[in-house]
Amino acid sequence: MSKRGRSGARTPVHPAEASSARGGNAPGRGQAGKVRIIGGRWRGTRLNVGDAPGLRPTSDRVRETLFNWLQPMLPGARALDLFAGSGALGMEALSRGAASAVLVERDPALAAELRALAARLPGGEAAQVVQADALAWLAQPPAADAPGFDLAFVDPPFAAGLWDAVWPALSPRLAPSAWLYVEAPLDAPLALPAAWIAHREGSTREVRYALYRRAG
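User: That's the sequence. What structure does it adopt?
Assistant: Structure tokens below.
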């Protein structure tokens, strides 16, 4: 397996390492850095970007576009950031008005960073950080009284090709009129279930990103 860098070159990634990634532009492996929350009550807050394999936080430009699309539905929404990584998407959603967010991250160090960040922020208790493999977490039955998520971010490590495995497990956890955000390599064929209708989409030199709405 491999991951794609800025230049388009591919470097090896072991399958077992591949479940804690984010899409977009970011430091490569071994280059820790920071990204920032770009809007809302926590605007300017910096998020640590570790050196986990495949970690690629969604770029500021893409996040700004995405959250402009989402702004009308964010207040009070229940969000799921399935491959949380730096937490840039889940924490941005909370900053801009989401009521709660579950951030699922396999890497223990990244999950610990997210918990520490949530503890520092006013209102950070709205973020629930789950240290788990995303697919294993989805396979567990939700609590009987758990409401469906209104919004899910699905941005797995590109090299692992997890999109098709996510859809059937994710669907039961979402509200009937949920929104779904997906990032993938520019040349990756994405085949979402027929229930999902494309709402908006865009691309960078390497990444395709799209927002979908559940039909009906």
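The mean pLDDT is 83.
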